[in-house]
Design brief:
With 137 residues, the chain is mainly α. The chain folds into 2 domains: 32 residues, no CATH class; 102 residues, no CATH class. Helix content is 51%, strand content 3%. Helix 1 runs parallel beside helix 3, helix 1 packs antiparallel against helix 4 and helix 3 packs antiparallel against helix 4. The longest helix has 27 residues. The radius of gyration is 19 Å and the shape is elongated. The N and C termini lie far apart (39 Å). The chain binds zinc ion (ZN). The site of zinc ion (ZN) has 8 residues, from loops.
Length: 137
């Protein structure tokens, strides 16, 4: 009977990762294991608004997930700032509509680019706002 090298939980025959802590089982294929798909879902959460806090705050994320979570939170903070800025013009009817539409579109497109990066397993910054770091990792 095998036991997890990290937490000591009992492993079932054929398990690719520990059911308790997610530690990959040595010898099991990594690319098809739970850790890989978990990494992908956590990465996608990074770009779904406040859900970015989950991969950011949950311990033991891979550097890949953590980097995306930081990007997601930066995007979120930037969106909040933009919405406040747009709110300043809320008394100007047409301008307010244009600004809200642009802000909504920009945050949608940037989130989508982030999710595509995660899906392609690419650890890269978002365009335009990639260098803006409101929080550090
Ligand atoms: Zn374990």
């Amino acid at each position: 009977m095998a036991y997890c090298s990290k937490c000591g939980s009992q492993l079932n025959e054929g398990d690719k990762a520990c059911g308790n802590c997610g530690e990959p089982v040595p010898g099991a294929s990594r690319s098809t294991g739970n850790s890989s798909s978990n990494e992908m879902w956590m990465g996608i959460l990074s770009y779904l608004g406040v859900l970015a806090l989950i991969p950011y705050l949950v311990k033991d994320q891979t550097p890949f997930v953590h980097a995306h979570a930081v990007r997601g939170i930066n995007l979120l903070l930037l969106e909040v700032i933009v919405w406040v800025a747009v709110g300043v013009f809320s008394w100007v009817p047409v301008l307010n509509d244009i600004l809200s539409t642009l802000a909504g579109l920009a945050s949608f497109v940037l989130s989508l680019i982030g999710i595509i990066n995660v899906a392609n397993k690419e650890d890269k910054d978002l365009p335009f706002i990639g260098t803006i770091r409101l929080i550090k990792d």
